[in-house]
Amino acid sequence: MTDRHPLASLVVPAGLVLAAALSRLIPHPPNFSPVEASALFAGTYLLDRRAAVLVPILAMLLSDFVLGFHALVPVTYACMALMALAGRWLAGQASVGRIAALGFASATFFFLVSNFFVWLTQGMYPMSFAGLVLCYVEALPFFQNEVAGVALYASLLFGGYELLGRAIPGLRRSAAA
After folding, report:
1. DSSP readout, 65-130?
2. What is the separation of C-alpha 164 from the centre of its chain, rounded to a whole number of angstroms?
3. Is 175 contained in some domain?
4. Which of 8, 64, 109, 139 is most buried, judging by how many CB atoms fall within 10 Å of its CB?
């Protein structure tokens, strides 16, 4: 039995979508966003895999209606969906070390994939190995912000949920339940 609660099937996804979408609309450094951490959290705690995948997709979609859509939307959304699925790895065994490792791996995955597609499709860099390297090098400040955002928001989400679970009996199922 997992430590996920049935209440999470509606309240948590709705809250995560709303919070992540709204947070993308307030001023913040580029790539410093809660969406990746929300995807990992949703994948970890939501019973329904589809709901877990929809959390980051809907958050991105809602906020992109305001911010604007871009050519790499399919790549970005696919990465977020895969991060939600990766969050399932933490189900029933979330720990600070595992959350940090998966958060860093997710940020790295997104950095590598999204910048590869920037290089491949945007015409900003020469279509050579040197151009690809240049693309990654120039994106390092965004990666730094992304890692910091995942660290902060994962700490808030996972840590907050843990504290809330201690304060509200029955919110988290025990492994023996």
Report:
1. HHH---TTHHHHHHHHHHHHHHGGGGTT---HHHHHHHHHHHHHHHHHHHHHHHHHHSSSS-SSHH
2. 21
3. no
4. 8
The length of the chain is: 177
Q: Is residue 176 part of a domain?
A: no
* Residue appearing with tokens 């890692």: 147
How much of the chain is helix, strand and coil, in % rounded to 5?
Answer: 75, 0, 25
Instruction: Assess if residue 41 is contained within a domain.
Output: yes
**For residue 95, is pLDDT > 80?**
yes
- Degrees, nearest 5: CA angle 59-86-63: 10
| pLDDT, tens only, 44-68 | 988 889 988 998 999 899 899 999 9
Residue 6 has pLDDT above 80, yes or no: no
Q: Give the phi and the psi of residue 108 in degrees, each rounded to 5.
A: -65, -45
- For residue 163, give its domain range: 6-167
Report pLDDT digits (tens) over 66-80.
999 999 999 999 999
Interval 147-159 mean pLDDT: 93
Q: 172 lies in a domain? A: no
Mean per-residue pLDDT, 124-136: 98
